[in-house]
Every structure is written in structure tokens, then in C-alpha cells.
Write a structure and sequence with these properties.
The chain is of the alpha/beta class. The chain contains twelve helices and twelve strands. The strands form two sheets. The protein has a six-stranded parallel beta sheet with strand order 2-1-3-4-5-11, with helices on both faces. Strands 7-6-8-9-10-12 form a six-stranded mixed beta sheet, sandwiched between helices. Strand 1, helix 5 and strand 2 form a beta-alpha-beta unit. Helix 5 crosses helix 12. The protein is elongated. The N and C termini lie far apart (about 75 Å).
Length: about 350
């Protein structure tokens, strides 16, 4: 089935059918619906190359990922984000271009894809404070959405989707303080990343509000891996005055903490408490019928869908106002917390 045959069946011109399928406003809703039903009935799919020539769009979205080992998006969480975004790309008949590049070539890669016109828009991952990529994409005229935010001036000047990380970790810290814990270890992501900076701020704010001194010696920041969680927790539990609770920035870190507690003969929820951030990963569930880990939960897959939806808006209407979506994290009660043990 090609465009000419479908047009003959409908008794419409090829131009009208093409415009109906591509959502042009001058085509009536009734005609668009009639064309869409016929396309579904006859299994017609637009030829992307021909469609690109007609619309001036590539019908592709770009994701540029640096290969640095110190980059938070090169981890399993990224997979679920892409799965969510791809649901929207598929629905809108868009392709995804993933480019893995050396860190030093990241800026040039954005310039190259803009010059070649190989994608219609990009999503920025893992923003840092005052992230230079945002101003770069503005200057080269490439539509974009940021997964997260970049601290500093200008947050209102671009579209973003973020979790209220500061509030989530303030709430989680308050929860542990209410249980009597004052030695609370924060095992955070890389604090050059904006999300980790905000989580640290929420943790610090909760401690300060209760007049609990913040002890930097029981806080760690690194890539969010199981090995980091294990090594950090093992070293901290061996101290003369160990933490009685851990606040971990991912379920992956939390699994490492659990292993360290097991090795030390400690039981989570009785001897040591643990609260994690749960991205609701499809392949690493925090329990099935009920949660295992007490957690702040916000689905990264859902965030992927929202980012992709925003990007489609940017592509279809370059003059559309910037959108900002703040996602709240829910506090999930599992089995890894308990009252602070007596000295």
C-alpha cells in the first residue's frame, strides 16, 4: 500500500491524504478521521523519507550521551527512561537516534546534528549546575527538553521535567528523624549533577530544622552502583560511631547497602534502617504485592513519556510556551525501616 493507492481508494488527492496524516490544520477533522481509518484498515504507513521531503522534518529525535564513566545517565535508569519516551516516538511515527560520544566531542556533536539536520529535536540528560548545553542548543536553534533542571538563572527559559528531589529527600530524612535516628548517612549520586545537589539540599534542610548536626564523614557521593553502596556502607558500619540509618539515591545503591548489612550480621529494619529512591524500574521492582524497601518513588519511565510529549509540542509549534513539569515522589512504606536502636 502506497500513498497513491490509498488516495485512489479514498477519492482524494495525494496532497490531501498526506496533509491529513501529518495533522495539517487546513484539513478538516472529519477528513483526517476518514483518512486515518482507511490507513489503519489498509495497513498504510507513511514513507519517512518522502514525508521528510514534504514537511522539512526528519521525524527523528536525538539523544547524545557522553561515554564518561562519571556520568549518571550511563546506568540502568536510562533504559527505562528511553522505554517511556519510545512509546511516544512510536505513536507519533518518530525514530530515535542515540549517539554515544567522547566527552570532549559532546558540544561538537550537537553542532553537527544541527548542521546536518539529522534530527528535529533532542532531549538533554543529566543536567549539571549552569549546564552549558542549554545555552548551546538555544544558540543553534535546536528544539530541546531537559530531563531534570539546571540550577541557576533561566529555569523558566526552557522546557523541563523533573522530580522534586529536594522535597523528596527532606521528607525521607524527616521520616527517619521521626523514628529517632540522628546518625543518618546519605549515599548520594555524583553531586556535580543537579538532581544529587538538590537531594543533598533536602537532606541538609531536614537536619537543620531539627537542630541535628550534619556530619559530612557519614555522607558519600559517587556513581549510583551496587558496588558503591556496598563499599560505602561497609566502611561506615565499621566506624566506632556508625550511622543507624542510610538514605540512598537509588535502589541500586540500596542493594549494595543491604549486602553490607548482611555481611555485618545486621538486619535491615531492626539494627539499621534504609530508605532508598525508587525509580520504579521495570526490571528491578521494589517488591511485587508490597514494597521491600521503604522508598521515595517516582517513575522514570513516566518521566520519559512526559519529556517526549513535550518534545513533540516543541517540534509541532516552535513558538509554543515553555513547559515545566514537577513530579512529586511518593513515600512508600516497606520493610527496611524501624526505630533507632538504643546505644
Amino acid at each position: 500500500m502506497n500513498l497513491k493507492t490509498l488516495s485512489d481508494i479514498l477519492g482524494l488527492s495525494q496532497t490531501t491524504v498526506s496533509r491529513a496524516l501529518n495533522g495539517y490544520p487546513e484539513v478538516s477533522e472529519a477528513t483526517r478521521e476518514r483518512v486515518r481509518k482507511a490507513a489503519d484498515q489498509h495497513n498504510y504507513a507513511p514513507n519517512n523519507r518522502a514525508r521528510s521531503l514534504a514537511t522539512g522534518r526528519t521525524h527523528a529525535v536525538g539523544h547524545v550521551i557522553p561515554v564518561s564513566t562519571e556520568h549518571e545517565v550511563v546506568n540502568p535508569v536510562f533504559t527505562d527512561f528511553i522505554a517511556g519516551a519510545s512509546e511516544i516516538y512510536s505513536r507519533e511515527n518518530y525514530d530515535m537516534h542515540l549517539k554515544i560520544v567522547p566527552d570532549a566531542l559532546e558540544e561538537q556533536t550537537y553542532r553537527d546534528i544541527a548542521l546536518k539536520g539529522s534530527v528535529d529535536a533532542v532531549i538533554i540528560h543529566g543536567p549539571k549546575d549552569n549546564d552549558k548545553r542549554i545555552e548551546l542548543l538555544r544558540s543553534i536553534g535546536m528544539p530541546f527538553v531537559v530531563h531534570g533542571r539546571s540550577s541557576g538563572e533561566g529555569e523558566d527559559d526552557y522546557s523541563w521535567v523533573d522530580v522534586n528531589n529536594a522535597r523528596a529527600f527532606e521528607r525521607a530524612t524527616d521520616f527517619l528523624l521521626d523514628l529517632g535516628h540522628t546518625r543518618i548517612s546519605l549515599l548520594n549520586g555524583l553531586e556535580t549533577m543537579d538532581f544529587a545537589t538538590r537531594r543533598r539540599q533536602g537532606y541538609s534542610k531536614a537536619l537543620a530544622a531539627r537542630n541535628v548536626p550534619e556530619d559530612a564523614s557519614i555522607c558519600r557521593s559517587s556513581e549510583m552502583t551496587e558496588e558503591f553502596g556496598f563499599n560505602a556502607a561497609r566502611a561506615l558500619l565499621a566506624q566506632d560511631n556508625p550511622p543507624t540509618a542510610f538514605l540512598a539515591s537509588s535502589i541500586i545503591i540500596g542493594i549494595g547497602v543491604r549486602r553490607a548489612c548482611d555481611d555485618a550480621g545486621l538486619k535491615l529494619g531492626r539494627d539499621v534502617s534504609l530508605v532508598i529512591h525508587d525509580d520504579d524500574l521495570s526490571y528491578l521492582r521494589n517488591g511485587t504485592s508490597e514494597p521491600i524497601y521503604t522508598a521515595t518513588r517516582s517513575s522514570v519511565r513516566h518521566a520519559g513519556r512526559i519529556c517526549a510529549e513535550m518534545l513533540m509540542t516543541q517540534i509541532n509549534d516552535p513558538n509554543a510556551p515553555h513547559e515545566h513539569r514537577m513530579l512529586d515522589a511518593e513515600l512508600i512504606i516497606g520493610h527496611t525501616h524501624g526505630p533507632a536502636p538504643k546505644a
